[in-house]
Amino acid sequence: MKKLGVAALAAVGLSGCAIHQNVTPVQVRMEDRVICVIDNPVVRKGFSDGYKRALASKGYEVRTLPTVALITDCAVTSTYNATWRWDLALYMAYAEIRVFSAGKQIGEAKYDATHGSGSMGKFIDADKKVVELVDQLFPGGAGAPVAPTAATAATAASAPQ
């Protein structure tokens, strides 16, 4: 009976050391390949740069908007937040990326290691985590750019200059 009590206590204690990740992918077809990202100067620059690189690698054109921009300033807008903590080393404790279209949220990705104090799994490569979140948030990406056909190339070549 004593062993069962110790096991139950350990299970309860470790359940508070969980790391959570939840992604609601963007499921609407985005007509535009442009995603406007509202700058968040409180977040480490490396996160912002990594997020924009990950979007670009999925085929999106990224435009940075000032902090005071509204989520309705572009057809598709994104906000982000991230925090770091120290526990033997600096680690990304929390990240959130939200995507909006016409002022309505159409996708969200959250990574939360704020309750992972006893877990060594919190010591992740933040850049790789951002790429993972973006891959899950935009599973199809922007697709390949439309290549000009022979007809459109001929039309463009014969157009008056």
Task: Write a brief caption for the model.
The protein is α/β, with parallel strands linked by helices and 161 residues long.
Overall description:
The protein is of the alpha/beta class and 161 residues long. Helices cover 30% and strands 29% of the residues. The chain is built from 4 helices and 6 strands, in the order H-E-E-H-E-E-E-E-H-H. The protein has helices at 2-15, 45-57, 126-137, 150-158, and strands at residues 20-24, 34-38, 61-65, 76-86, 90-101, 104-112. The protein has a 6-stranded mixed sheet, with helices on one face. Helix 2 (45-57) packs across helix 3 (126-137).
Descriptors for this entry?
161 residues, alpha/beta, six-stranded mixed beta sheet
What strand line-up does the widest sheet have? 1-6-5-4-2-3
Shape: globular
- Number of helical segments with 4 or more residues: 4
Main β-sheet description: 6 strands, mixed
Query: What is the percentage of strand-forming residues?
Result: 25-35%
Rg, alpha carbons: 21 Å
In whole angstroms, the N-to-C terminal distance is 89 Å
What is the total tally of β strands? 6
Low-pLDDT ranges: 4-15, 144-161
| Helical residue percent band | 25-40%
Element order: H for helix, E for strand:
HEEHEEEEHH
Mean pLDDT: 79
The chain-level structural class is: alpha/beta
